[in-house]
Write the structure tokens for this entry.
Amino acid sequence: MNEPIDGQEGPLPSAGQSCEDDIAMPSRRQLLMGGAAAASAIVSIRPALANTAASVLNCTIPVPDQGHAGNYIAPSGQLVPAGTPGAFPGTGRSFTGEQVKQALRGRPLPGTSYDQNQAYLNYIRRLQRGTSGFTCYASLQMPR
């Protein structure tokens, strides 16, 4: 009497009971279509993440930023007036995210002495929001 028909699962609704009273069960076709959509989303997201990781390593951090180009960098990483004893002049160039990442792991920044390297890394660690290079440095700190 209440037998499944046409591939539907479960009994038909009784007299006075509507189909909306039952919890809708997705068909196999709907499940397969949902799985296909999820798989295509994953395939399209992975290259985007790979591009993001690559762009993080290619971003640049100027030492110091252009607004402070005339200043020197003290061993603590603070900006000081040019000619301050023990401080180092700016590099006049930017370091890539990859170079900074390697330097944070123990390799020297290209073209720097040990003391310069430490001062420049301290400067980079002290970067504040709104300073050129901050976003690049912050993105290096994010786990992947």
Notes: The longest helix spans residues 28-58. The radius of gyration is 30 Å. The chain has a mean pLDDT of 77. The CA atoms of residues 1 and 34 lie 33 Å apart.
